[in-house]
Amino acid sequence: MKSREVEEDLLDAALTTAHAGLVTAFGHVSVLVGGQVLITPPQPLGSLTKPPIPLDLAADELPEGTPKEAWIHLAVYRARPDVRAICRAQPETATALASAGVPIRPLHGQGAFLGPEVPVFDDPRLVRDRQRAEELAKTLGNAPALLMRGNGAVTVGADVGQAVARMWLLEVSARINAQAAAAGRPRALSTDEQAAWLAAETELLSRLWAHLRADRRGQS
Asked: Which of 114, 72, 70, 68 is nearest to 94 (CA)?
């Protein structure tokens, strides 16, 4: 994919994340191309005016003007060779459940795309240094999503569409978990049931991303 196309996809992801109500003034999206990370600048994702900032994957320092939480992106990419895109946002219900100690488990089919239980990084402070970013990446492990207690969430994907779609699903799954807990005794999908949904994960995430993007463009 050409550099211009990558930048356009990244901008599209940023605008779609904002349109979906997953961020306000804060949040960022990135993609990994070769040994270089492209990350959105420290501006509201819904009104970006500056191009993405390039980072060397092996960087020991952040260039001036880079979001300080870029350390999260670098740490996750270094720890996860399968990850090619990251979305960092503040989904409200998911953040509330993390603070309440309520686990987010797959109660509906697409919830399986977030793993058997979304891990929680228990440090509520801003992650603006390499060491804590590496601790966060360790907590994420091989999971597709991570909650940050009192501080939003991180989702990953093989492309930027998957990362954004998973962030949207994280908030949906959080609402379903909260409603189910209030109504009775939630019954999570079994391992076999999750596996059946995971067999269609790539296809369904792609369709969800297309829907979210079309919804944003149709109302812009």
From this structure: 114
Residues 6+ apart with CB under 8 A from 152: 27, 88, 89, 90, 91, 94, 95
Provide the CB-side half-sphere exposure for 119 (13 A, CA): 16
For residue 54, the cross-strand partners are 38
Name the pairing type of β-strands 36-39 and 28-33. Answer: antiparallel
Q: Which of 117, 160, 122, 150 is nearest to 12 (CA)?
A: 160
Are 101 and 178 spatial neighbours (Cβ–Cβ below 8 Å)?
no
- pLDDT tens, position by position, 177-210: 999 999 999 999 999 999 999 999 999 999 999 9
Q: What is the C-alpha to C-alpha distance for residues 34 and 85, in angstroms, rounded to an integer?
A: 12
Does this model's pTM top 0.70? My answer is: yes
Query: In whole angstroms, what is the distance from residue 108 CA to residue 187 CA?
Result: 9
Residue type, 179: Q
Position 75 scores a pLDDT of 98
For residue range 59-91, list pLDDT tens digits in order. Answer: 999 999 999 999 999 999 999 999 999 999 999
pLDDT of residue 218: 84
pLDDT tens per residue across span 27-38 = 999 999 999 999
**Which structure tokens are listed for 19?**
């349109």
- DSSP 3-state percent helix, strand, coil across the chain (nearest 5): 50, 15, 40
**How are beta strands 153-157 and 145-148 bridged, if at all?**
antiparallel
**Residue 147, both tokens:** 């909650």
Q: Which of 147, 142, 55, 63 is nearest to 101 (CA)?
A: 147
